[in-house]
Every structure is written in C-alpha cells, then in structure tokens.
Amino acid sequence: MHVLILGARAPACLEWARAFAASGWEVTAADSLFSPVTRYSRAIRHYLRLPEPRRNPDAWIDALRHAVQTRSINLVLPTCEEVFYLGYGLERIPCRVVGMPLEALQPLHHKYQFAQMTQGWPLTAPESHLLESAAAVAAWADRAGDWVFKPAYSRFANRTLIRPGRRQLLEVQPTAQQPWVAQRCVAGKEHCSYSLLVDGRLAAHACYHPRYRVGRGSGIWFEPTDPPAIRAFVAHFGQATGYNGQVAFDFIETVDGQCFVLECNPRATSGVHLFDDQPEALVQALLEGSDALLAPTQQPRMIALAMLLFALPRYGLRRAFWQDFIAARDTIVRSGDWGPLGAQFPALLEILWHVASLRRGLLAATTADIEWDGQPMQEAACS
Predict the structure, then answer these.
(1) pLDDT > 70? residue 155
(2) Domains identified in the chain and CATH numbers
(3) What's the predicted TM-score (pTM) here?
(4) For 324-353, b where at least 16 C-beta lie within 10 A, e where not — what string?
C-alpha cells in the first residue's frame, strides 16, 4: 500500500510518515517547498514537489491527481492548510482521501461561524461578534478592554489583538470578504486538542497545554492534559457533524474548571506527536477506527530546535525551563532516522527567504503558499 502525505514542511507530516512506514506502507511525502524537513527522513521512499496551491488551486489538484495515477497511490493524507484545497478538488482525486469537502471545512475555519455552531452545545465558544467594516470596529473602540479581536480566517494567532487600546484597534480595517471577530476575553489555562474521527466517531484523542510557544502562536512544548469536558466536546462535535479525519481545537479552562472552545483547526496539529510511541495503532485509528479510544502518551514532547531558538532567549535563565527541556522528547530526532535533525537548518533558511521576499513574519511565511482565507478558488487562481 502506498500513501501520499502532504505538508512535508510540518513535523506532523514527519510523524505520520514514520507511523505509516512502521505499519509497512510505502510513503511519499509532498510539498511546494524545496527542502521541507520530512524530505530527508528514512521513513519516506519518494519526495514530490507540487506547485503552490494558493497561487493556482486547479493546477495543484491536477498535479496531485497525476501523482496519484502515475505512482499508484492508495491514500492521500493532508497535514497542513492544503486540506482546504484538497477539499475543493476532492472528487478529482482518484483514490481514498482522508478529509472533508470544502463546504464542510469552511465554517470550521471561519472563527465566527464556528463560534455560532457551538451555541447550544454542552461546551460553547465565548460571546462572539462579526465585524465587517471599519465602522463596526469603531463601535468597539471604547470598550475593547474585555475583548479579543482576530481575523475570521487566520492561524498561529496571527494579527490577534488581546484587549487592545483604542488607537491599535482602529487600525483594523475589515471587509465583508475579510471580516474580523470580536470575542470576549476569557482568562485561564490553554488546552489544545487533537483527534481522529472516523465517520463522526472519536477514534483517537490527545489534549495538551502548550507551555512554550513561538510568540503567541504555534506551541513547541506539549504537556499532556485531559479535561473530561474537552474529550466530551470533541465526541459531541463528531456526532453532530459526522466529521471524518483529523481535527484540532483550542480551549481555555477557567480557574473554576469551566472550559470554552476558542477555535477549530480541521487539520493535523502537534498533538499527533503524543502518539509517537504507538505508530501502528495510530494508523489503524485513522483508517478504521478502533474498538477502544486510542489514548496518548503522558510524557511531554517538544520541538527542541524551536525551544532553543525561541524559548531559550526568554526563559533560559530559569531552572524550570531546563527541567522542562530535559523532561520532554524531541519530535524530530528518532533513533535510526537522523536526516530530519540536520534538515531543520536548510528548511529554516528556506522559510527565512520567504520572510524576506514576502515581507511577512516567520510564522506567517511558513504557510503563505498553502493558506486559505475564504476567497473563491477561481479568484485564488488569478491572484
């Protein structure tokens, strides 16, 4: 059996490549970058460089379809935001695809629509309002102190404003096509969930606290947690939507134990690393589900290079940082598969080139060619 795993830039792709290889599959990884970290793993047999999906979604789908046909691919598994482009062209891919149609993914990706979806569920999003004009933003200028403002389509907390001042908020210029969301600020402990659902049934579930992050965005140190309310929410989500594939959510747990769901990421996230000690069971849960819910490790995981680059300058003088660093296992390093360790440096240099050429921040540059912000796919092909 032959699997094509998309998003080779992501450590999550590397995790899946190793899991499928351990399960006896032939693995091809694909991306639009030249030097993604998964390319250098012994877990993969081939690397396929695809065109940028954001630049021309139809050309990307055509290249993907050609690869499936010529390489005898049995399964396509997305890991990053290319999941939306895959959902757009789902019917054109002549093999099994782990994913959902774009029309099912869009309201999950839109932060206001997702917040509205949760109303009436046992666990809901905080109060949220849609902002589609500068005038709508101005109405909040004198009462922004208890609110969080963020683009309806965004990732890594990019451009998120937490309790902003009047002047900072008034710089926001949303439109009907690129709206923002005002969401009541809730203080507490952050949790991130990662789950596999098979036809709406929860097959694997992990939850973690991202103790260290790159800025406000992506977590790089993952402390396993398991609030029952969060697990129950994901099970309810699956039953309500019939979702199939990978899905992740961000939550806040208040001091009194109440949980609120903040947003949905209908794709892979770092939570998959918490299953790295049971790769064959993870693949089975993805493809077939399991009789019992697959549970994660209870030991922390981290991206060690990111910890040294981004957390060390801020926390390096604290003893707790080094205790956490020693306690966690690196998600990139694996005995017998050392290629990805050194590959992190050319991969980072390629992203830094995108930072300079696109004039975007580091995290924004990592997804600039694959992200989808709700624009019509035909419109994306012309941009």
Answers:
(1) yes
(2) 2-99+340-382 (3.40.50.20), 127-184 (3.30.1490), 188-336 (3.30.470.20)
(3) 0.94
(4) bbeebebbbebeebebbbebbeebbebbee
